[in-house]
Design brief:
The chain has 308 residues and is of the alpha+beta class. It has 10 helices and 14 strands. The chain has 3 domains: 84 residues, Winged helix-like DNA-binding domain superfamily/Winged helix DNA-binding domain (Arc Repressor Mutant, subunit A, Orthogonal Bundle); 97 residues, D-Maltodextrin-Binding Protein, domain 2; 105 residues, D-Maltodextrin-Binding Protein, domain 2, CATH 3.40.190.
Length: 308
């Protein structure tokens, strides 16, 4: 007996209440469906249907077997879809949202290479620092930075999100170089307004874990809710800033900024942030979404990509 074929015949007979209608659905003879159900009943040693002139009615055993049959057949269909997708050429319109500064620096700049590699994918790039509800907004994929809240969305970590303290050479020449995190309490710092407590958390990479964390209260007259704005202010010598490595690479290389306290890891909150690809929960991830995520995950994983 072909068990999967017999289970499909049984499923449609149960749903349609008729061997003949199940046979029409499957494109086979009525006798074939009847024989499949009979073989199942013999194998299970239980009657699956009560038969009458009005049609087929599931027995108690039939109802139990029907529920299990649905799960098995659905799992088989999912397995076939996932496997077939591996051989499918990624195509279609991909709507992806991303933070403005990060998107310009690290998504858009590599988009020509992505489009060349996947000529059947079109991209709508939604550049915004607003956290969109991706399902309601018809978004296929979102690039998010930080610590993810609990949600039903799926996520894949693309890269770490590291921040470093930096300042312009002009600012350092005027105020001196801080030798410890505590020294920053007397410096002018540039902060995000979201950090309402005005504190940075420092972790000494050379110390033992139980004695490595230090919190420093900060001061300064300027806050900005935009990474590029804080970068410009830091380059202009307005103060020391805590900026992501993905934003300051060029400025450090060309001497516009210098890194301060390089032996310390720094973050504004206790949560460990990262750069994420977030997408709606689906049993089968579309090939266009998987292609985009794999492309940028491979790019960001290169050893020197985030090098200062």
């Amino acid at each position: 007996m072909d068990y999967f074929s017999a289970m499909r015949a049984f499923r449609y007979a149960a749903e349609l209440g008729s061997f003949s209608q199940a046979a029409a659905k499957l494109g086979v003879k009525t006798s074939t469906v009847s024989r499949s159900v009979r073989d199942l009943e013999q194998d299970l040693a239980i009657a699956l249907f009560n038969r009458s002139t009005r049609g087929l009615v599931l027995t108690e055993g039939g109802r139990v077997f029907y529920e299990q049959t649905l799960q098995v057949l659905q799992s088989l269909e999912e397995a076939r879809a996932v496997t077939a997708a591996l051989n499918s050429s990624p195509r279609g319109l991909l709507r992806v949202t991303m933070p403005t500064a990060f998107g310009r620096r690290h998504i858009i700049r590599h988009l020509p290479e992505f489009l060349e590699r996947f000529p059947k994918i079109d991209v709508d790039a939604v550049m915004t620092d607003e956290v969109l509800k991706i399902i309601d907004s018809g978004i296929d994929l979102a690039i998010r930075i930080g610590a993810l809240p609990d949600s039903q969305l799926m996520a894949r970590r693309l890269a770490p999100h590291r921040r470093v303290v930096c300042a312009s050479p002009r600012y350092v020449a005027r105020t001196g170089t801080p030798s410890s995190p505590e020294d920053l309490s007397t410096h002018v710092t540039l902060r995000f307004p979201l950090a309402a407590d005005d504190r940075w958390i420092f972790v000494d990479r050379t110390a033992r874990a139980e004695a490595s964390q230090l919190t420093v209260r900060l001061g300064g007259r300027i806050r900005a809710d935009d990474t590029e704005a804080l970068l410009d202010l830091a380059i202009a010598g307005c103060g020391a800033a805590l900026l992501p490595t993905w934003a300051i690479g060029d400025a450090v290389r060309n001497g516009q900024l210098v890194r301060l306290l390089p032996e310390w890891e720094v973050q504004p909150t206790a949560a460990t942030p990262a750069i994420w690809a977030v997408y709606p929960p689906k049993k089968t991830v579309s090939t266009k979404v998987r292609a985009f995520i794999d492309f940028y995950a491979e790019l960001f994983s290169k050893e020197d990509y985030w090098d200062l």
